[in-house]
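Hi P.,

Sorry for the delay on this. The queue was packed all week, but I finally got your sequence through. Input first:
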Amino acid sequence: MSDDKSATPRPGRTPGRGTRRQPRSFKQLLLRRLLVVIPAFLLMFIAVRTGLLDMSYDKITFSKLSWFDNTALVEHLRLAVVRDNLTDLPRNCLVFVVNGNAADNTPTMDVLGRHGNGCPGTTPSADKLFSLKINRSERTVQTDAGTPGAFHDLPL
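Then the structure:
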């Protein structure tokens, strides 16, 4: 009985071949890993350079309660200022100075642009670029960028 079953090959297997696959060579292993790693690296590099990663992180973490947290609000506004091209400085060269106490629902922020020490410019300084008026309860921001003293809405 057992001779009949062993004599007929099972479907999907070629007769005469063993059940074990030949071991992959080092070159095959290396190529398979590179085919996964290189596109993943390029995708992450593009996501970081275009700011897509920062914007996605901001969309996930910034909520209605974040308007009352100065640290979260500053990071959100830093992205909004760079995204709306209110300045041509990189986002790590922007300094936000919060004017007003923490209990105030309508603080103003001065946005300063750093120069020198890794930022564009030769002499270390921080010049005022523009101001922001924040209304925390209505979740709106107004800026005087381009028109000092005359505030207009900043789209968020």
